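Let us practice reading a record.
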Amino acid sequence: MTQEGRRRGRNETEEERADRMWVELIQEVRVAQTGVQILFGFLLTVVFQQKYATLPHADQVIYIMTVVLGACATGALIGPVSLHRLVSGRRVKPQAVRLASRMTFVGLVMLLVTMASSLLLILRVATRSGYVPYLVAAVVAWYLVCWYGLPLWARRRHTIRSSEGTARGRPGGGTPGQERT
């Protein structure tokens, strides 16, 4: 009990915590998977459009890199499902949750780069204007604020610290991409 007479945190075993964190992680991954799969599906159709053959070489290179990044993001975001299936029943869920969390973090970074390069390509083709890189940089900055800046700020501001200076009693307090709820 805390000084106010209310409990803080959860009273759960490592396995219960891993189960809860796994469910939360999979819910988060579902959102990202949907977005990356729609984007990747769209990207796969571009090469079959008549206009693709008329694109300058630089735009074709941007397109190819965007497709490869989209494929990698898709792989990283679907990876936790495969991981779970292959280690299910092996009593390694806490380790699997940590690994899946890292794969998801990498997948989100790759999704960010895929979205930025997609936007770059689309705006280059649509406008052929010199301001496109600046517009894309502004959108990327916005993504960084929404996806990483605000969450890291909230984590730092609202994480309860014990007298030893650890986050919720966990040594080191964690790194980006590690689930700490």
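A brief commentary: Confidence is low (pLDDT under 50) at residues 167-173.
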